[in-house]
Amino acid sequence: MSPPVEFEYNAFWAIKQCNMNLEKAGAHRKLDLQELEETRNEAYENALIYKERSKAFHDQKIPKTTFEVSQKVLLYQSRLKLFPGKLRSRWIGPAIVTPVFLYGAVEIQSNKTDNKFVVNGHRLKHYYEGFPSGEVEMICLDAPNCSN
User: For each of the chain's 148 residues, which pLDDT tens digit applies?
Assistant: First the structure.
């Protein structure tokens, strides 16, 4: 028969050798876990606050345009083209607003084809007729006289 041998768990042995109290270490670990959870909750709340503020700022920058029946508008052409042309305008029209629906939907009628279709109001902008020519002011510029 072999003499009795006592086995110790290495981590427990290391704690005993360093004169650490297991109860204090356990309480400290629980406290650290609670602080970690509080920090995580604060970060989550801050992310929600940031998201709300950035959404409000973004919505503030979007212009609120309202359209009325028989008003002329331009339609943004969002169709994908391979070679769209560098300086070509992507606004087509003018078209005439027939009715305006809830939540920004607008029905327009094309002047060229007389087709009616419903589009999102974000794809439209007001069409302004040409300005009258009587209001244009002409300024003639002369070469400056430099006497040096």
Answer: 566 666 556 676 666 666 667 788 788 889 999 999 999 999 999 999 999 999 999 989 887 888 999 999 999 988 777 777 777 888 888 999 999 998 889 999 988 888 899 999 889 999 988 766 566 677 888 877 777 6
DSSP, res 148: -
The answer to whether residue 67 sits within a structural domain is no
Alpha carbon separation from 135 to 55, 129, 138 (Å, rounded)? 42, 14, 10
| Long-range Cβ contact pairs of 105-110 (< 8 A, separation 24 or more) | 106/67, 106/73, 108/73, 108/75
Does one domain contain both 76 and 122?
Answer: yes
**Does an H or E element contain 74, and which?**
strand 72-76
For residue 44, being part of any structural domain is answered with yes
Angle at 39 between CA 35 and CA 40, to 5 degrees: 115
The residue segments making up the domain with residue 39 are 10-61
Looking at the structure, tell me whether residues 16 and 37 fall in a common domain. yes
Q: How many separate domains does the chain show?
A: 2
| pTM, rounded to two decimals | 0.52
